[in-house]
Amino acid sequence: MYYSNGEYFELTFKQKLSYFFISLVIISLGNGLSIAAAMGAAPWSASAVNLANVTHLPTMLFLAIEAILAAVVNLFLVEHINWQRTCGNIIFGLLFSLFVAEFANLFRPLFVGLATIPKVIIDLFGIWCIGIGISVIQRANFVLHPLDNLTNVARFKFFHGSAPLGQLSNFVIAVSISLVCWAMSGQLMSYGIGTAYCFFLQGNNIAWGDRHLFKHLLHIDPTKI
Questions:
Q1: Which of 37, 84, 128, 164 has the fewest Cβ atoms surrounding its Cβ within 10 A?
Q2: More confident residue, 117 or 201
Q3: Model confidence over 151-185: pLDDT tens digits?
Q4: pTM of whole model > 0.85?
């Protein structure tokens, strides 16, 4: 839904599809940059990297598994189950897994020999991109990555619309998975300044996107749809 000239309008399918692809590219690009920079990825991406390190299976596989499991959890939290939307969210999650893997592989050679400070700057930019991409896709209210949908549901169901608190509640689970992997392998992968920035400030990035990017788009309580 969006607001224009004092009136509320529903987005057309074409508009929703446009925002979907814009968000998918921005979020995947941000994750790919943060993983390739190796200065700290978003907590869920980092958990997938750590699971891959422990099992020696592809990171993309765990990104996909996380998306599917989050979609299942969402079904228990919403008041009305929308199977079409749930399937769309899973498709988003699977496409995201593929896009992130491709972006990370594309960017890795660019970081070889790069100094630490430029890596940190690019990594933080990648994390910021993830936040504003999430802001757009949440408000477009078409389909979401299931983990972002879980954040959105928690935001309205438990935290009175607070994006920072909704995001923190989501990330606690991801960090816990990585800590278990650390205990098993003795290695903690893809954690760093970018992860801390994402953990504590990603909700603020989403809120910034709400206020400044595509400002006409409005949030709808996802527990009611």
A1: 84
A2: 117
A3: 878 888 888 778 778 878 888 999 999 999 999 99
A4: no
**Beta carbons of 37 and 122 less than 8 angstroms apart:** yes
The pair of three-digit structure tokens given for residue 184, joined into one six-digit string: 């098993």
In this prediction, residue 219 has a pLDDT band, given cuts at 50, 70 and 90, of low
**Amino acid symbol at 190:** S
Asked if 122 and 115 count as a contact pair (C-beta separation under 8 A), the reply is: no
DSSP the chain: -EEETTEEEPPPHHHHHHHHHHHHHHHHHHHHHHHHHTS---HHHHHHHHHHHHH---HHHHHHHHHHHHHHHHHHHSSS--HHHHHHHHHHHHHHHHHHHHHHHHHGGGGTT--HHHHHHHHHHHHHHHHHHHHHHHHHTS---HHHHHHHHHHHHTSTT-HHHHHHHHHHHHHHHHHHHHHHHS---S-SHHHHHHHHHHHHHHHHHHHHSSTTB----GGG-
pLDDT band at 20 (very low <50, low <70, confident <90, very high): confident
Taking the C-alpha atoms of residue 99 and residue 116, their distance in angstroms, rounded to an integer, is 25
Tell me the C-alpha distance between 93 and 59, whole Å.
14
Two structure tokens written together for 79: 């008041």
